[in-house]
TrEMBL record:
Entry's localization field: Endoplasmic reticulum
Main location: endoplasmic reticulum
UniProt keyword RNA-binding, yes or no: no
Any Pfam family hit: FKBP_C
InterPro entries documented for this protein: EF-hand-dom_pair, EF_Hand_1_Ca_BS, EF_hand_dom, FKBP-like_isomerase, PPIase_dom_sf, PPIase_FKBP_dom
This protein's name: peptidylprolyl isomerase
GO MF terms held by the record: calcium ion binding; peptidyl-prolyl cis-trans isomerase activity
Coiled-coil segments on the chain, per record: none
EC number: 5.2.1.8
Annotated catalysed reactions: [protein]-peptidylproline (omega=180) = [protein]-peptidylproline (omega=0)
Protein purpose: PPIases accelerate the folding of proteins during protein synthesis.
Cleaved signal peptide residues: none
Organism: Buceros rhinoceros silvestris
């Protein structure tokens, strides 16, 4: 048979062999080698075979059994590893991805997906595979390893495949299942950790910041936001991410952790992408850091309000307050308490982000409140490098400690009483008809010190006075004359008359 380059294939005990060989082959194992001596009466007798075997010849055979099967055999399945957790097994019409080594019964390798470094991807139970493999894959879990032995009549039969598999060959497949899904599958969500307090859940159109680990079903990691040390930031429900993630991110709470399992038709499809193979089921373990909607405004929650709360903060007031600033997940960003001093601003003057200007309105001394500021009213998409992440929702816990009432809008200085009719002459102390900046500054300082006038609180004295002087110095020569000098209400009247 070696000279012919093909095995001898025959049924045993059915008269297809000489009597001695029929008896000699019984009880042999695959890969067993026997030396068989057959007397003439159990071989070709007194006649022999013309030109080949003489009469009354004793025959010697050196036999190596390569393969054996019975027409009543079925597919044999031997599982040698099965994961502890197996939430789903292969069913008819499922699509699977698996690796395999294919050998004959004697151990000879005829094919391997490992050598091609690519899984075998196919539907199960609908005729895309040889019948024995269609049967052998049913009931497998992802991660399971099994040996599937298939008789030839459930494989490639009498003819073989015309290439690597001879006729009447039994096949042995060592299979590890990496992935499975059904074309009818939707996403699957496993809630791993949901905060006790969840005032709001995400909806289509919200902007989310979340961390994730992305793996295949067999646990192979293909991407992680943690490794980049930066959240993934996106709108949900608007097509900015794959369809399965768009759906899986709806209805989450800030701080929630969930697992989202996405079939390939809702992921990266048959083609895959980058490290993601074609037809792969994706598993995302996500942690929602925060979310907001572009239509959100500042949210204010009053935690404490004094019994006497009649003077409320307004634009132009000078405020001193303490705060703790954090992200929605509780990460502390900054605190005046740790600095040991208050934060001082003029409300509505642009010294803080717009959301904080809004959050400090109508507050009384001693009041404590929580102010939640969406990023478009905070530090926006860019954030503050090294301090505030981009697109972050900010949480400020505030206590107002001091309030100095500001001046009416547009005024940097007001009189507390009647204005002198000879105001210019009082400022022009040397009576030369011209007021210099030094004279003007000394006069304003004297009025403030005596309580006759009041400057806008919270601003630098010299800057305010210089600004007031510049407004009066209409020709810009560094001197103010009587003709140039006008009070603000006089300017307003003149403008009205001109209109």
């Amino acid at each position: 048979s070696y000279d012919r380059g093909s095995t001898f294939n025959v049924f045993v005990g059915k008269g297809q062999l000489i009597a001695g060989m029929d008896k000699a082959l019984v009880g042999m194992c695959v890969n067993e080698r026997r030396f068989v001596k057959i007397p003439p009466r159990l071989a070709y007798g007194s006649e022999g075979v013309s030109g080949v075997i003489p009469p009354n010849a004793v025959l010697h055979f050196d036999v190596l059994l390569i393969d054996l099967w019975n027409s009543e055999d079925e597919v044999q399945v031997q599982t040698y590893f099965k994961p502890e957790k197996c939430s789903r097994t292969v069913q008819v019409s499922d699509f699977v991805r698996y690796h395999y080594n294919g050998t004959f019964l004697d151990g000879t390798l005829f094919d391997s997906s490992h050598n091609r470094m690519r899984t075998y991807d196919t539907y199960v139970g609908i005729g895309w595979l040889i019948p024995g493999m269609d049967q052998g894959l049913l009931g497998m879990c992802v991660g399971e390893k099994r040996i599937i032995t298939i008789p030839p009549f459930l494989a490639y039969g009498e003819e073989g495949d015309g290439k690597d598999i001879p006729g009447q060959a039994s096949l042995v497949f060592d299979v590890v299942l990496l992935d499975l899904h059904n074309p009818k599958d939707g996403i699957a969500i496993e809630n791993q950790q949901v905060p006790e307090s969840c005032e709001r859940r995400s909806q289509a159109g919200d902007f989310l910041r979340y961390h994730y680990n992305g793996t295949l079903l067999d646990g192979t990691l293909f991407d992680s936001s943690y490794s980049r040390n930066r959240t993934y930031d996106t709108y949900v429900g608007k097509g900015y991410v794959i369809a399965g993630m768009d759906e899986g991110l709806l209805g989450v709470c800030t701080g929630e952790k969930r697992r989202i399992i996405i079939p390939p038709h809702l992921g990266y499809g048959e083609e895959g992408r980058g490290k993601i193979p074609g037809s792969a089921v994706l598993v995302f373990d996500i942690h929602v850091v925060d979310f907001h909607n572009p239509s959100d405004s500042v949210s204010i929650t009053v935690n404490y309000k004094p019994a006497n709360c009649t003077v409320l903060s307004k634009k132009g007031d000078y405020l001193k307050y303490h705060y703790n600033a954090s992200l929605l997940d509780g990460t502390l960003l900054d605190s005046t308490h740790s600095l040991g001093k208050t934060y001082n601003i003029v409300l509505g003057s642009g010294q803080v982000v717009v959301g904080m200007d809004m959050g400090l309105q109508d507050m009384c001394v001693g009041e404590r409140r929580r102010v939640v500021i969406p990023p478009h009213l905070g530090y926006g998409e860019d954030g503050v490098e090294g301090e505030v992440p981009g697109s972050a929702v900010l949480v400020f816990d505030i206590e107002l400690l001091e309030l100095v009432s500001g001046l009416p809008e547009g005024y940097m200085f007001v009189w507390n009483g009647e204005v002198s009719p000879n105001l210019f002459e009082e400022i022009d102390q040397n009576h030369d008809g011209e007021v210099l900046l030094e004279e003007f500054s000394e006069y304003i300082q004297a009025q403030v010190d005596s309580g006759k006038g009041k400057l806008a609180p919270g601003f630098d004295f010299e800057k305010i006075v210089k600004n007031m002087f510049t407004n009066q110095d209409r020709d810009g020569n560094g001197k103010v004359t009587a003709e140039e000098f006008k009070l603000k209400d006089q300017e307003a009247k003149e403008e009205h008359d001109e209109l």
